[in-house]
Amino acid sequence: MPVSFEESTDSTSNVGNEIDLILKGQKQTVSKYQQIMTSRSEVGARRLSTDQLTELGEQIKDVAADLKRSSQLLNTSLKQNPLASDSFAKVQMDRQFASDVINETLNELHSSRTFQTMLDVIEREKKKKINMQNAIIREEEGRRKIKALRNQLQNLQMEKEAEQQNKDEMIAHLKDQVQEMKAKTSTEGKYMKKNAELQVQQTQKKCTEEESKLKEEVQLLKSKIDQEIRIHLEIERFLRQNQADLEEKLELWMEKYDKDIEGKQNELISLKASKTSNLQRLREDSEKYLTYERVIIEDRLERENECKRRTQEEREFRSIIKLQSWWRGVMVRREIGIYKNLKKKVESKGKAKGKGKEKDKKKK
């Protein structure tokens, strides 16, 4: 960009206003051209006459001329304007594309009286425009994301700087602590060295004392070992003598064992014989027990049946008595059968008794 335009503040707005005016005129021409195309499509179903076709072709030529003029004006303005050097190539390409489309449409109208090429181009351009808009939207979203990420990066940088400052302070503090620890460890090392030397001397002294004690213990253990050897020999002599005595006793016990086994076998034979006789008696007694038990059960059942029969007879007798007394009461209350004139007899007897009592009173 030239220096004169860089220093001017209103240069961008002036150039933008001029380009806007030219583009508005070009858009009006394009809209007029589209209206002509739509009117052509409405009457496409009908067959056009030669006059109508020529009139429509003239209108298209006028619109194409207007587009060329607006394109030339835009080109001249862009050439004169040093700020629009980047967009000049794009506008030139658009102008060339519009001119080519118009020429192809005119050729198609003269040859086949259709304008399908124009419709196809419009559809392609619409799709391109939609794709471009989507790309712009994605680019804007990407810019917003980049801006947000930049803000996050700045925040992270600030946090890292603060963290780095804290780490530097911590490192300085730790260096001070390291110096203190070095001084402390040097003093502690001297102390530990002296302490270790003293401990070594003490351990050497203790070792010598322990060595003398262990030598005394070794002498004592040697004397104890000699004593144990003598005791072992005496015990071995005693055990051998005891073994000979035990072998003699074992022979005696084996003879006694054989005798006892023979006696126990005789006892076992006698016990088996007694067992057979006892089993025979047990079988006989069990048979008697079963017969007696059967008789006792039969007797018990007969007694229970007799008891039940008696209780049943007593119940029936009591029921009969209750039933008779109830029926007698019913006959008396309702004066049925032999109790029909009983009330009159009772009243006459009562009157007779009353008269007899009065006579007795008079006699008295």
Produce the secondary structure layout:
Elements (H helix, E strand, L loop, with lengths): L2 H5 L3 H32 L7 H31 L4 H28 L3 H219 L7 H22 L1
Our Rg estimate from Cα atoms comes to 73 Å
Largest sheet: none
- Helices, by number, come to 6
Shape: flat
> Which stretches of 5+ consecutive residues score pLDDT under 50?
1-12
What would you note in describing this structure?
- The chain has 364 residues and is mainly alpha-helical.
- It has helices spanning 3-7, 11-42, 50-80, 85-112, 116-334, 342-363.
- Residues 1-12 have low confidence and may be disordered.
Question: Key features?
Answer:
single chain, 364 residues, mainly alpha, flat, disordered N terminus
Give the structure's gist in a few sentences.
With 364 residues, the chain is an all-alpha fold.
